[in-house]
Amino acid sequence: MSFSDGFTSLLPTLLALAAFAVALYLVSHVMKSLPVSVAYPIWAGGGTAGVALLGMLALHEKAVLWKTSGVVMVVAGIVLLNMGATGHGV
85, 34 in Cβ contact below 8 A? Predict the structure, then answer.
């Protein structure tokens, strides 16, 4: 979205809207097999971690300890949620 210049640049705006549509479609499809209490946090947390990683890798944002630790904790939380949903938890 940062490339869309406040949604005034057409191609980046269309790409961002397409990405939102695909993400919404995918999460609605996943919710057919996972409970919403698992699917939505995975979607939201995965998106948050993904955007943070994208910022660090593609946009050259600083990968400071706190940011990196936060991404690791989000990913760990997603793994734990998924384990609980599939019955592999304790």
Answer: yes
Q: What SS3 state is found at 20? A: helix
Say yes or no: 16 and 58 in one domain.
no
Let me know whether 63 and 88 are in one domain: yes
| Per-residue pLDDT at 32 exceeds 80 | yes
Asked whether the whole model's pTM tops 0.90, one would answer no
Chain segment 14-29, per-residue pLDDT in tens = 988 898 899 889 888 8
Task: Residue 1: name the closest of 38, 90, 12, 87 by CA.
Answer: 12
Report whether 81 contacts 40 (CB < 8 A).
no
Give SS3 for 8: coil
Distance CA(35)–CA(21), nearest Å, equals 21
Q: Domains in the chain: how many in total?
A: 2
CA distance 26 to 28: 5
pLDDT score recorded for residue 25: 92
